[in-house]
Design goal:
The complex is a heterodimer of chains A (335) and B (324). Helix content of chain A is 30%, strand content 23%. By secondary structure, chain A is an alpha/beta fold. An eight-stranded mixed β-sheet of chain A has the order 6-7-8-3-9-10-12-11, with helices on both faces. The longest helix of chain A has 18 residues. Chain A is globular, with a radius of gyration of 21 Å. Chain B contains ten helices and twelve strands. In chain B, the strands form two sheets. Chain B has an eight-stranded mixed β-sheet with strand order 6-7-8-3-9-10-12-11, sandwiched between helices. In chain B, strands 2-1-4-5 form a four-stranded antiparallel β-sheet, covered by helices on one side. The radius of gyration of chain B is 21 Å and the shape is globular. Classes of the chains: A alpha/beta (335), B alpha/beta (324).
Chain lengths: 335, 324
């Protein structure tokens, strides 16, 4: 498997994922459980994320994008592969060794309603990571830090004593971001972090992410199904299908000239908010739906839906090949 | 129905919900029209009243919601004046509805075939046997592979996209004159969304039915709608032919929406321009224009007086004082 994107391992690589796999066992029987198969949620994913970069991860439900994120955070145990973060191979770190690592990578979740404890004041939600990692200091210092974090994400520190239900969806997402930033992470993983927000509010939060990156030098792994948002925020983008990365490219390359037929299909499916353009656009829709990851198609996993399918596609699995212009595609058409 | 009369015409419809925090004015004097064969998109953010509009047309407002005023004229009949029985004869028959969440709209313990056949049997008085045969045809029409053999399947055996196809088959079962689809593809993946919407559009066009498409996605509107109504805080603030609205959005809220969405075809690195602030609390609406607090063009008058929907040009109206 080639390393996707840029192959030169230098000091600017923040996160490197090599051949990552996460398989979930499928069992049968109640008393004597036996494994009858496995769901290959993530199956050999490799990419590198540079310092200060926003790396987008897109794909439809079940493609393994969220599972990839959870494995990187070691909230799920990888079945195979390596995760190298800030130069350290953290794949086999135990929970205790992981603790200082966890300060450096944080996650912002999709659901601003489900991910905040409704019985905690906003100050304590944002400050909790400081307490857990024994970085809170004195009461005065703690409050000052929380105030600072709130200001950073555009919340008024006066509101620190309120509870989550008193905030709107957009504000709750800001609370989640402030909490993620409390420990000064270098990597923030955003899993559908703006998907639940109304469009006018979504733009506010997207801008906030971009401002914070500039100010704090953050790197983002930005996971979303909304291609327009990912395009707007990302430097490079990986497209996933059924547990595999099918294409990685700079965002303008990817959108201007998609190589993988799945990327093409995905882009064609997203309507552009302009009726004049839409009327001219060829509407070539791919048929069918994503198959089950428990029993993925042979060869290229996209072949049953691919409009350009060839004989070898059902027999030989295409590997992610790095091309001369720094792009990577897993397709026999571009072998 | 005469040629000049629209298929559906909603006039001055107001709906309120009493709550412990006060009365929530979910709809305030909403007027809209849909012609046969036309797709009207209703766009707006959560709480703008899109779904309540759909439910009011079918008189399905949940308790304790109340229709305060207005009329809903469908094919010459005022639906708000009908008794329950006559209303039931229209619902699911001449007006069909497709909801966002197909899993909660389908009966989990009834076979797919029976669920699709039920409206056929109920409204068209056919026997189960004939109705089931027709259900198989309908399922084939919505591109369910091997439809006849799937009649005995249960909803949990279908994927999300397949379930939504079943919902469309049910909606089409009685050849309705009007279909109301409330965020029909929001829960689906983009490639499946495109399939479902294209299917819905083709089938309604072929049957010359009216379609009300409720969505928050301005891309979907651009691809599928003929006309658009933009809602904000329970009122329609602008309505126009889709091309006019995108080429020349006039209401500051519509303009704000257009600027706040990232576009797939936009290569510039422009920042998004969000609309400042948040939508108002519907239980405590300000006296003037509900958008005034977020509006970049706000004037003194906007905070005290409510702008009415006025015609700007043929097929283009807007509720704003800012422009003449």
């Amino acid at each position: 498997m080639t390393d996707a994107g840029r192959s030169d391992p230098d000091s600017t690589v923040l996160l490197r994922v090599e051949d990552l796999a996460v398989h979930f066992p499928v069992t049968e029987g109640v008393l004597f459980e036996k494994q009858v198969g496995s769901v290959k949620a993530v199956d050999g994913v490799s990419f590198e994320l540079m310092r200060g970069e926003t790396f987008g991860l897109v794909g439809e439900s079940g493609c393994g994008k969220s599972t990839t994120a959870l494995a990187i955070l070691r909230m799920l145990e990888p079945t195979a592969g390596r995760i190298i973060f800030e130069g350290q191979d953290i794949t086999n770190f135990d929970q205790k060794t992981l603790r200082p690592i966890r300060r450096r990578m944080q996650m912002v979740y999709q659901d601003p309603f489900g991910s905040l404890n409704p019985r905690m004041k906003v100050r304590d939600i944002i400050g909790e990571p400081l307490v857990v990692h024994r970085l809170a200091g004195g009461r005065k210092q703690y409050r000052a830090r929380v105030d600072e974090l709130m200001e950073m994400v555009g919340l008024l520190p006066d509101m620190a004593s309120r509870y989550p239900h008193e905030f709107s969806g957009g504000q709750r997402q800001r609370i989640g971001i402030a909490r993620a930033l409390a420990l000064e992470p270098s990597l923030v993983i955003c899993d559908e972090a703006v998907s639940a927000l109304d469009v006018s509010i979504q733009a506010q939060v997207v801008n906030l992410f971009m401002d914070l990156q500039e100010r704090l030098g953050l790197s983002y792994l930005f996971i979303a199904h909304d291609l327009s948002v990912v395009r707007h925020i990302s430097d490079r983008i990986a497209v996933m299908y059924l547990g595999k990365i099918v294409e990685i490219a700079d965002r303008d390359q990817l959108f201007r000239d998609p190589k993988h037929p799945y990327t093409e299909a995905l882009l064609a499916a997203v309507p552009v908010p302009d009726p004049e353009i839409e009327a001219e656009r060829p509407q070539q829709l791919i048929v069918g739906e994503v198959p089950s990851p428990q029993n993925p198609p042979s060869g290229c996993r996209f072949h049953p839906r691919c409009p350009k399918v060839m004989d070898e596609c059902s027999k030989v699995e295409p590997l992610l090949q790095l091309s001369s212009d720094g792009r990577a595609v897993a397709c026999h058409l571009h072998g | 129905m005469t040629e000049s009369q629209p298929l559906l015409s909603v006039t001055d419809l107001s709906v309120s919900f009493p709550t412990d925090r006060g009365t929530v004015q979910a709809l305030d004097s909403v007027s809209l029209e849909v012609d046969a064969g036309e797709t009207l998109a209703i766009v707006g953010e959560s709480g703008s009243g899109k779904s309540v509009t759909a439910l009011s047309i079918l008189r399905l407002i949940p308790d304790p919601g109340r229709i305060e005023q207005g009329s809903v004229i469908f094919d010459g009949q005022d639906l708000l004046a009908l008794d329950r029985r006559s209303m039931r004869a229209i619902r699911g028959n001449r007006i069909a509805m497709i909801f966002q969440e197909p899993m909660s709209s389908l009966n989990p313990v009834m076979t797919i075939g029976k669920q699709v056949a039920e409206p056929v049997r109920l409204h068209r008085g056919l026997s189960w046997k004939v109705a089931l045969a027709e259900a198989a045809d309908l399922l084939a029409k919505v591109a369910i592979p091997d439809a006849a053999s799937r009649l005995d399947s249960y909803p949990h055996e279908f994927s999300g996209g397949m379930r939504q196809r079943v919902m469309i088959a049910m909606a089409l079962a009685c050849r309705p004159q009007l279909i109301i689809a409330d965020e029909p593809t929001t829960a689906l993946d983009v490639t499946v969304q495109a399939q479902i919407l294209a299917l819905l559009k083709d089938l309604t066009r072929a049957a010359n039915s009216g379609l009300i498409l409720i969505t928050h996605d301005l891309g979907v509107v651009a691809r599928y709608a003929d006309r658009v109504a933009v809602m904000y805080a329970g009122r329609i603030v602008e309505t126009a032919a889709a091309r006019d609205l995108y080429a020349n959005p006039r209401h500051p809220y519509t303009q704000g929406l257009m600027k706040s969405i990232p576009r797939l075809d936009d290569e510039s690195d422009k920042r998004l321009v969000p609309i400042d602030g948040q939508p108002p609390d519907l239980a405590h609406l300000p006296p003037g224009c509900a958008f005034a607090a977020r509006c970049p063009h706000v004037a003194d008058r906007c905070r005290v007086e409510l702008p009415m929907l006025e015609t700007l040009a043929e097929n283009h109206s807007m509720a704003c004082f800012g422009y003449d």
